[in-house]
Fold this protein.
Amino acid sequence: MTPPKPRLPRLARAVLDVIGCLHTLGGLVLLAGTLLDAGTPPPVEMGLGVAELTVASRFAKGGPKTRVAAMIVAACMVLAPLTGLAMGGFVGAAGVVCGLVVFALCAHRETAAWFARPRP
């Protein structure tokens, strides 16, 4: 029988799920806007949202590679708005904070132990 998932990995997955849904919906809205204005490039936000949802769905069965993937996605969650700010755009502070939270939760010892557990 599998031990219950600790609190920190559950919280990291919940944040990835919520932010992934918001990024995907925001990407769809931006995509609809680009269809109306043909001069704008397609949004990267929707791709980030799909990546967040994919990694979050792998938390239940995933091993250490899933934790590393979550940390990479979290770093992208932090870097994407900051690069937009460097190009003169708007930065979503909530996305940066959520990315830092997911990264910190995935880097924690308890989460690493959960992903390194033996699997049946």
